[in-house]
């Protein structure tokens, strides 16, 4: 029978786990109100938005906490990683406090990304009346349904008036750094944004879709249909939401189209660079026709095999004129791109097969206005502080290292 918003819902006898699995993998369609808000067949821009860019995790997390502590109606928080560390505890305390004050709190975290989260850490929030749900959780022996379908989105929406998105997870690595190969690195470098204006409604619709797909309780249908906020500034912004059960590779296709239209300069940053052949060829072709294409990747990564794979695909790009840099002072976790300083992309998608095919992601697309230039300047500063990678340096690697890199690239571009 049809449910609220026109969605079909299972009969009473169907268990919650089955219903959650059906929703998670797209068998039960999204409610009509959510489909209308997301407009997944195309990219629709909203005018009149304001964007504040955070260049490090400390500033971004602090601004998010301030927004949570000032909430009066509702808080919607979606994250891939929620840790049981000091930063995670601060967020959970703030959420519980607002729940006790009567604010509606909905917390969604990924079951694999937050695997180390202590279940007891959520007890205070739940006792205060807040909801906390794991997306596609793991059982003792194996993941339920499809293990690679992950919720990699990072969204915070407060009172339907202000929203945050970008690369920030919730953990201490953004404040204290992390140890890697016996060396303590600086705090992770990431990019995050605070937005106000009509686009907030679009980001909240993405959260509500994730909440629906995770079978979160008490889905607030009325909030999905609220009117958009009034214009507050001059930025034109679109929300690009994609996932494995609908419109996969939307970001890849948008990046390829933007590369083909670029005339002067392209800057991209990603921690994990193992794209498929179509995106690699688009980067190479853009550089070959004289456009300056600069790529910044992570020199220190939490998954070393990804860096090996990146080095396995870089020689062809370097041969065609792409300039490549590695950020080595800390973990570079930002995901962003700027084309001719007129079109900017910032969000949660890495340039690898997991993000582009298997994970639920969200990205902001900004055209015109001041934001693309500000983001381009930030990326340029990061590149100047990073190490340039040359084709000669990759050729100087040992035979074993070159073979290892090629094998890693072969596997990660196909798995």
Give the SSE layout.
Blueprint: H1 16-24, H2 32-38, E1 45-54, H3 57-69, E2 74-79, H4 86-100, E3 104-110, H5 123-127, E4 131-135, E5 150-151, E6 155-158, E7 162-166, H6 173-176, E8 179-180, E9 183-184, E10 186-189, E11 192-196, H7 199-213, H8 221-224, E12 235-242, H9 250-261, E13 265-270, E14 273-274, H10 277-288, E15 292-298, H11 304-319, E16 323-327, E17 330-332, E18 336-339, E19 343-347, E20 351-352, H12 353-358, E21 359-367, H13 371-384, E22 387-389, H14 391-395, H15 399-412
Parallel strand pairs: 2-3, 3-4, 5-21, 10-17, 13-15, 14-20, 15-16
Antiparallel strand pairs: 1-11, 1-12, 2-6, 6-7, 7-11, 8-9, 12-21, 13-18, 16-22, 18-19, 19-21
Helix pairs in contact: 9-10, 10-11, 11-15
């Amino acid at each position: 029978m049809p449910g609220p918003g026109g969605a079909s819902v299972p009969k009473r006898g169907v268990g919650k786990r089955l219903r959650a699995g059906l929703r998670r993998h797209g068998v039960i369609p999204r409610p009509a109100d959510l489909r209308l808000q997301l407009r997944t067949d195309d990219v629709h821009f909203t005018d009149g938005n304001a964007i504040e860019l955070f260049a490090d995790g400390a500033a971004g997390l602090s601004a998010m906490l301030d927004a949570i502590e000032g909430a009066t109606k509702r808080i919607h928080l979606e994250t891939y990683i929620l840790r049981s560390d000091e930063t995670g505890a601060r967020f959970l305390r703030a959420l519980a406090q607002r729940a006790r004050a009567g604010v509606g709190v909905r917390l969604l975290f990924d079951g694999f990304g937050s695997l180390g989260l202590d279940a007891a850490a959520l007890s205070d929030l739940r006792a205060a009346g807040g909801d906390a749900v794991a997306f596609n959780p793991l059982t003792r022996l194996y993941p339920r349904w499809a293990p690679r379908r992950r919720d990699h989105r990072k969204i915070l929406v407060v009172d339907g008036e202000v929203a945050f998105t970008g690369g920030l997870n919730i953990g201490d690595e953004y404040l204290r750094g992390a140890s890697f190969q016996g060396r303590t690195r600086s705090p992770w470098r990431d990019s995050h944004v605070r937005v106000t204006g009509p686009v907030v409604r679009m980001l909240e619709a993405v959260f509500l879709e994730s909440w629906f797909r995770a079978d979160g309780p008490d889905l607030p249908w009325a909030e999905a249909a609220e009117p958009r906020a009034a214009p507050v500034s001059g930025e034109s912004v679109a929300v690009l939401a994609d996932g494995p059960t609908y419109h996969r590779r939307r970001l890849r296709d948008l990046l390829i189209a933007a590369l083909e239209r670029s005339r002067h300069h392209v800057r991209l940053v990603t921690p994990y660079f193992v794209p498929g052949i179509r995106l690699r060829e688009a980067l190479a072709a853009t550089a070959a026709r004289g456009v300056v294409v600069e790529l910044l990747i992570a020199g220190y990564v939490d998954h070393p095999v990804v860096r090996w794979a990146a080095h396995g695909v870089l020689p062809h790009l370097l041969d065609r004129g792409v300039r490549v840099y590695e950020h080595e002072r800390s973990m570079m976790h930002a995901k962003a791109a700027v084309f001719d300083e007129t079109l900017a992309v910032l969000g949660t998608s890495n340039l690898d097969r997991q993000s582009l095919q298997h994970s639920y992601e969200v990205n902001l697309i900004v055209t015109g206005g001041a934001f693309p230039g500000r983001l381009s300047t930030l990326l340029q500063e990061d590149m100047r502080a990073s190490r340039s990678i040359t084709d000669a340096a990759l050729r100087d690697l040992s035979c074993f290292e070159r073979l290892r890199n090629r094998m890693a690239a072969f596997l990660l571009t196909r798995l």
